Amino acid sequence: MMEVMTANYAAAYAVKLARVGVIAAYPITPQSSISEKLAEMYVKGELYGKYFLVESEHSAMSMLIGASYAGARTFTATSSHGLALMHEMLFWAVGARRPIVMAVVARALAPPWNIWGDHMDVMSERDTGWMQFFCENNQETLDTILMAYKISEDRSVMLPSMVIEDGFILSHTYEAVDIPDQDDVDDFLPPFDPEWKIDFDDPRRFGGLTMPDWWSEFRYRIALDQEVAKKKIVEVDKEFERRFGRSYGGLVEFYNCDDAEVALVLAGSAVGTAKEVSDKMRERGKKVGVVKLKTFRPFPAEELKKLNDMVPVVGVFDRSYTFGYGGALYSEVRNGIYVPGGGALVKNYVGGMGGKDFTPKNMEFIFEDLLRIKKEGKVDRMVEWINIKDGTGRW
Amino acid sequence: MPKFTIPKEEYVCKGHSACPGCGTPLALRYTLKALGKRTVLNIPAGCGGVILGVWPSYALKVPVVDNAFECTAAIADGIRAGFDVLGVKDAYVVGWAGDGGTVDIGLQALSAAVDRNANIIYVMLDNEAYMNTGIQKSGCTPIGAWTTTTPVANGKGWNTSPKKRIMEMLVANGIAYGATVNVAYPEDFIARLREAKDIKGTKFIHALAPCTPGWRIDPRKSIEVARLATQTGIFPLYKVENGKYSLTKEIKNRKPVREYLRLQGRFRHLPEEAINEIQRLVDEEYARLLKKIKETNE
Amino acid sequence: MVEVPKTYKDLPSTPITFFTTEDNKTGTWRTIRPVIDKEKCTRCYICWKFCPDLSIEVEEEGDYPNVDYDHCKGCGICANECPSGAIAMEKEMGK
């Protein structure tokens, strides 16, 4: 059934379709309308599970960890400072191997105060062990949440997932979204059935003190299971396509890349802009490609390595920054595609932070810059911030 | 014929790592004797977790979920929520946190759980400081006590802030049931938990348990000291049900606080006038309690 | 029942425990040991009630208490609390 809705509502519909058992949430802009929609669904009796108002994001995540130990499927959603406040419990969810799914409506961190979208919040949680899936549009937000449950809850994975939609750009923008039938979703996503949960007849302790001689082994398992997840993500994406007719490339999607001269790697809603600009530039004979990074954790380094054979110059667009170095995506991509003594040249572009418009014109500037680098055969500077007043003089 | 005065069943295992004379394993024993097999504990950072031993072993015969310091009430409510959704019945969910994990860092989550009237039993194991990290002052450290963060030098420096009135805060917050218990009174301890267990909503148990290194006491005196806490009126045993306060242990002739303080190294530095001042404060606080009992039962 | 892990490969997907602490012989911590004088013991079970280490054992109601020296840490609460003075704390010898 097609309906026009925001990505936040699409997320709420996904939670309903996934028959989530326990939802705990705390409001924060621009996430709030997910919680509000779920609260409304709950009071109307449309949800399978229960909805809880908590006093902080820290408690939201804590509650879900408890509920997941009891054996329930769980969901929360947050943004920015809320995600940062959860930080401690994000590690806990991973160590406890609880396959929680969370929508993160990506937003900047203060000060100065800013409620608008960028990726600073999610990139800061890169090292927690959560899987991180970026969404390009509202439909993808709904679909990714359904897929995330299937991937996270797989007994060979058992890791939580962040489904990331860009604040305001997706969260508050209306698009046509296909809501799958409940029966089809039920066939795709079986009830949560964890191998280990609280059992009074087989009492165990979950997460107690472990000495240095074994602690690393538990961490090693998480590292290995992130690798297992890569295969699972591709598998689930294919199954989703078979059942629902939509695919998001699993880990990465190469768009207009086959005969491209340069390519730009990016994640989130800006992918849509990049695709459109790429199409337009091709009409003018400029062969530029787009690499959509669907999955940031686990990081698809092997898949991205193909870029070396495709193009001599790769741009990486970051909506966040790692102060003192470059964008997180940039360092990951550059490291991931590195081959000794050769490979593509890589340049980092930073922009669209704190909700600053990132227009097709900005995108075109990046592609033109990449074509120039290709012609000149060298990267002029590692990082370029786009659209800074008089920073470059270009806008 | 000799009789057991508390249930025989044990849900705590031998070989746990508590210090000799520690009150915490006793509190665990009594709690689980009262609640039985279908009980799950969630335990944050603190002695409670360390005492249960090192992976892959542990010292209880009921399930335990470990959790971060400040989220005991939230995790407990989460477990309850999961049980409710999945139809798991006749199970007790116990948040088992220390005094620091409750009145300091865990207060926000606890207050919100009370707001939701979370159907949990919250046991605050009060040993009156951050003992697991090495005896640092908490919001439950009594006036006059030495801790490593309220050290004593040149006849001053001990803790000067009173114990947080956590029970009154939570009663005002709206708990379904509240009681103070003391490991020196096992029958009363068990009776309170049995009374609390099937009441719907948030139940708060404030359990006093001595820490032998933290209180600087001879391990063999552990129970004797704990008993004196009640006999002197420093830690009176009472409960709050439907907003009504009542004493659960009548103390006919309160002993002077000096008897309690003098057994403990953490109070050794106190000059006579400080002891007199503590006596005055305890008398005042005890009178406040009696007044509350009177007022809430009128 | 899951086997106790020997390598990382055997680790379960969740950090669970595999057995209890009962094999942990905490009796080695002890420097003094409780000795119960059955002549004086009235079987009030106060020692059993207050033993933090579950090391005072009573098989059946009516039996005399016994000390589990494998686990008793020698705190001495039992001796201190015994109303009839039936428990003496004696120095551990040869340790």
Could you characterize what this model shows?
Chain A has 13 helices and 16 strands. Chain A has about 400 residues and is α/β, with parallel strands linked by helices. The longest helix of chain A is centred in the middle third of the chain and has 33 residues. Chain B is about 35% helix and about 15% strand. In chain B, helix 1 packs across helix 7 and helix 3 runs parallel beside helix 5. Helix content of chain C is about 10%, strand content about 15%. Chain C contains 2 helices and 5 strands, in the order ββαββαβ. In chain C, a hairpin with an 8-residue loop joins strand 3 and strand 4. The model of chain C has no long low-confidence stretch (mean pLDDT about 95). Chains A and C meet through strand 9 and helix 8 of A and loops of C. Strand 9 of chain A pairs parallel with strand 3 of chain B, so a sheet runs across the interface.
The profile of the biggest β sheet of chain A is: 7 strands, mixed
Please give the number of β-strands of chain B: 9
**What is the N-to-C succession of helices and strands of chain B?**
HEHEEHEHHEHEHEHHEEHH
* Rg over C-alpha atoms of chain B, rounded to the nearest angstrom: 18 Å
- Side by side, the strands of the main sheet of chain B go 3-1-4-5-7-6-8-9
Task: Output the structural class of chain A.
Answer: alpha/beta
Q: How far is it from the N-terminal to the C-terminal residue of chain A, by CA?
A: 43 Å
Structural class of the helix and strand makeup of chain B?
Answer: alpha/beta
Which regions of chain A contain 5 or more consecutive residues with pLDDT less than 50? none
Largest sheet properties of chain B? 8 strands, mixed
Order of helices and strands of chain A: EHEHEHEHEHEHEEHEHEEHEEHHEHEHE
What is Rg of chain A?
A: 21 Å
* Helical run tally of chain A: 13
Q: In percent terms, what proportion of residues of chain B is strand?
A: 5-15%
Biggest interface and residues each: A-B, 40 and 45 residues
Which whole number gives the mean pLDDT of chain B? 97
DSSP strand tally of chain A: 16
**Overall 3D form of chain A:** globular
**What share of residues of chain B is helical?**
25-40%
Gross geometry of chain B: globular
